[in-house]
Amino acid sequence: xxxxxxxxxxxxxxxxxxxxxxxxxxxxxxxxxxxxxxxxxxxxxxxxxxxxxxxxxxxxxxxxxxxxxxxxxxxxxxxxxxxxxxxxxxxxxxxxxxxxxxxxxxxxxxxxxxxxxxxxxxxxxxxxxxxxxxxxxxxxxxxxxxxxxxxxxxxxxxxxxxxxxxxxxxxxxxxxxxxxxxxxxxxxxxxxxxxxxxxxxxxxxxxxxxxxxxxxxxxxxxxxxxxxxxxxxxxxxxxxxxxxxxxxxxxxxxxxxxxxxxxxxxxxxxxxxxxxxxxxxxxxxxxxxxxxxxxxxxxxxxxxxxxxxxxxxxxxxxxxxxxxxxxxxxxxxxxxxxxxxxxxxxxxxxxxxxxxxxxxxxxxxxxxxxxxxxxxxxxxxxxxxxxxxxx
Length: 391
Fold this sequence. Notes:
Layout: H1 2-6, H2 24-30, E1 54-61, E2 64-71, E3 76-83, H3 87-97, E4 103-104, E5 113-117, E6 120-125, H4 135-143, E7 146-157, E8 164-168, H5 197-210, E9 218-221, E10 234-241, H6 243-246, H7 249-262, H8 274-277, E11 282-287, H9 294-300, E12 306-311, H10 336-350, E13 355-360, H11 367-379, E14 383-384
Parallel strand pairs: 3-6, 3-7, 7-10, 8-9, 11-12, 11-13, 13-14
Antiparallel strand pairs: 1-2, 4-5, 5-6, 8-10
């Protein structure tokens, strides 16, 4: 149990920038085994076992139930995940690891290396970014540390091929049980949205402008989509939309800087910390519109707006009852209700004490759709907010 005694990032005096790497073979060469790292000047770090000092409570809504564990007196860490199979994922990770004070951490498994810096853990694997489920839970079981949030670096693809830097929550809440999600996750599931999404989008825009990536790159939210399955507040940071842009080092550098500043690794205060900055308690739950959520973006780009799930039109499938005149008893099929409930519940849990306001992209709906959604939200006691309600 040597590792538990000294901690996984046990040395501070010998810390140095981790060299850039491209392949896992090179990684094996540049990183010494843990036993060879000098420990003479290190301070012991004690990590409680996963079972210690924890209690759990749960909340649920209809068929979508979310288990939340509240941990006390445990080391809380941010888990940042990248894959070596994607240049838009590994390049930002490389740029981040080139910054000061990273140290080798434990292998989650043979092909998953990690690096540590303060309360941040970078985890690298070689598979598609959307297929490795439960990485937060697996990290906790391996290390005894408690994961507070999960952040993924990834490429973005778009039909338009337009260059973009994006931030978004994940989940496939509209899929029915038995459906096979095309890009990971579990049918009917919405991840807890990372409360940093709104504040980091605004920080990303400032950093991209400072590095002259605007107007070439669009800085935007994306709607909730894809996996992998996670248990803790999660967000994706993506570079799009073609291979030429995925490989852009200036874009990778901006994404790395976003994490470095956003998590307070530069010695400053982290950005988008809900537990510290939640005096403005209104949280936007976006409903309707296209994948890039333009009406919701208009609100979120204002300072101090928090963002939960963003359900694009394709995530709230509604079957036309051919009663466009809106008879009150017309049953509108589709999984739109379960999707809204899953997204609302995940957002509510991710923002304890927050006031969740549904923000509708009214122009994206036909009148029968808007009437049905509005009635359902009212029935579920989910408040509806206008843009001015968020400021």
